[in-house]
Structure formats: C-alpha cells, structure tokens
Amino acid sequence: MISYQEALDRILDIPFRVGTEAVPLMESEGRHLAAPIPAPWSLPRFTNSAMDGFAVRHGDLASAADSNPVVLELIGESAAGHPFEGTVGSGQAVRISTGATLPDGATAVVPREHAEVVNSGGGVRLAVAPAEGVFIREEGSDVMRGQELFSPGTRVTPAVLSFLSGWNIPTVDVYTRPRIGILTSGEEIKPYGTTLKEGQIIGSSLYFLERELANFGCETRVFGISPDNPDTFAEMMRSVLEWADIALTTAGVSVGDHDVVGATLKQLGAETHFWRVAVRPGKPMLLATVNGKPWFGLPGNPVSTCCNTEIFIKPFLRQAFGIKPAVMPYKMRRMASACHRDKHRLFFVYGWCEVVDGEEVVHAHENQSSGNLLNPARSNCLVVLDPGTVDKERGAMARTIDLV
Question: Which terminal CB of the chain, N or C, has fewer other CB atoms within 10 Å?
C-alpha cells in the first residue's frame, strides 16, 4: 500500500495527451481552452459615460455649490450609438446617456439628478463641483488590446462564452474531449429503472461518473454492468479499451472471492502501477495501463468512487487540459464541529463550508460511511485529516479541498 502523495505522483507521471481542435464559440461551453485568447480591441472600445447626465469640463464647475449654482450652455446630446460630433468648450455641456461616447473636451459627467435644465432647454443648472474623470469609463480601463483574456486550461463557462461573444470571436481552440469508458461489475448491481429484488442495488456510481466527467469536459460512455465472471468482464473491458482513451471501472478491485479485476489484468497483459492507497475512503484503488491506455479501478462503494474521482481522476484530467495547478490547493478553514481521524490512513471527510461572522467554517457530516452517498450530494468540500488517534477538535484549523 502506498501513500496518497505517491499515488498522485504516479498518476501524474502517466504519459497522456489530448489533441486540440477549433470549434465554434457557441459550441464550446464546457470545453477547456487550448490556446490563450488575446483581446482583439480595448474594453471599453471608447471613452464613455458611466451615468445618464451631462458631460462637462470639470474646471467650469470648480466653484459650484447649492449656494452658488452654475449655468452651462447645453449644446447637444451624446446618446448610445449616436455620439456628439463637436467639442465641449468652456461654459458648455452636452447631455449624455450611459454608455455613450464622451465628447471631446469633456472631463467629467454630472448625473442628471444633480442637474436642472433651464432656459427652455438651452442651458443646465449645476450645483456640484465634480472631480476630474468622475463617472467616466476610459478606453481600455477594463481590458487593453492584445491583453490575454483567458489562458490555456480555462473552462468555457456560460459567463466566459458570453464575455467572448462580445468580441465577435467566431471560433476558439479547445482540447478534444478524452473518451472515458465506464464499466462496473457485480451480480447485485442493476441499472437505473430496474425493479429491485432482495439483495440488489442500483449502480448509482455509473451515473455519477458519466455525468461528472462529461461536465468536466470528457466524452463519457457507460459500457454496462458485468457479472462476477472474469471472462465476461475481460471481454467487456476489451470493448471499453477499443473505444476509450481512458478506462474507468468501479468495483472488483478488493480481495473478495468475486472480485474480477485481478484475473482481467493478467488476461489483458496490463501493467499495474499500484493497487492500494492509504486513504479513507477509497483504499482499494487501482492504476494500470493496457497498451499505453490508463485504467483507473475505483472501489465499489459509491462514496469511495466519488472521493477518488476528486482526488485522483480530476488531477489527471486537469493536467491533460493544461489546468494549473492540476491538484486543487488546500484552503485552511476552521472546524465548526469535531471530527474523528483514521488511525492509519489519510482521511478525506465530506463536509459543508459556509461563512459565519465573516469567517469560512466547515461542518463535517457525522456519518462518514463509504456507502453513504448522501454525503457527496450535500457537500461542497473535503476536510483532509492526517492519520492519528486524537480527534480534530471543534474550532481547530483544518486543511480542506473545494469540490469543483
């Protein structure tokens, strides 16, 4: 049995590369960028107003106050999409709307609630002394032309896609979706929708892996449920490896009489890199390669499957997608409840982080059974506890990993 860090190192040492392709921007959601995206132009593209109001020369209003209002000549309007063509001179003002181009000569904008139009629309009375540049958005103040907008590895979320659409970017270079073939085994495991008999359960881990890794930017396919028969399992694994770039199995990696992975490793001529890791949950974890293709063997318990996906599979995929860091960094948070340690293994405890009185605290769920799938469903972080016999006390600081 090897340590968590050694297992992680061996996983990240497996040679694995994904290709790249250009896809239409509107079809890129959920993918990971394979190349940096520079800004085609500055943002804002032009200096504009942040408020509805009046564009002025701030020096003209240096002495303005409630007791000493100043009247400026109103010479025109700058509306969004229809800029004022002239220049604001001394003693003049231009009506301006939010987002409209700032006229030449103007150095500040006074909001309309601080102004009164007078002289039958020919002037505006102002009783405030604005600072230079107030309520003005300068060209390039958000993004300069040529500035890197997003780096390789960035996941295209709806917000990223929306932002890029504002630049009329037609296509983006993304990493191809690695194919992940998913297979499980067990006489008691049945597909979703089955009317269960005594002793049978739904293979819920299959659907977690299928959806979680598809959402992570992979192409996933469930190859089904093998009976506890080594020959049948080996034949189904051949189908997985023929289609997939990565094979992912659940169950069959323990030491029970009906666990089929060991025999299949021999049949397929696989190279085993490790088979036991000193973590809880998820100790019976397998890493092998078959003709250069990675094979991750996850435990059958659903919480172990979820946890090992977070701490082993996702770092492997992040590295392939150019995401840095590949391993999620620890965040120190205060424990809102006490938590038991495991005597011999690194313990990944499912918990819920929230902000209390301005500080992030984490609640560890009481029942940390590896069969309690409710924990991953209601958690947003993992608490990482070193082996030991002394509980982690309430109020103590602990390492945590965000579940993203």
Answer: C
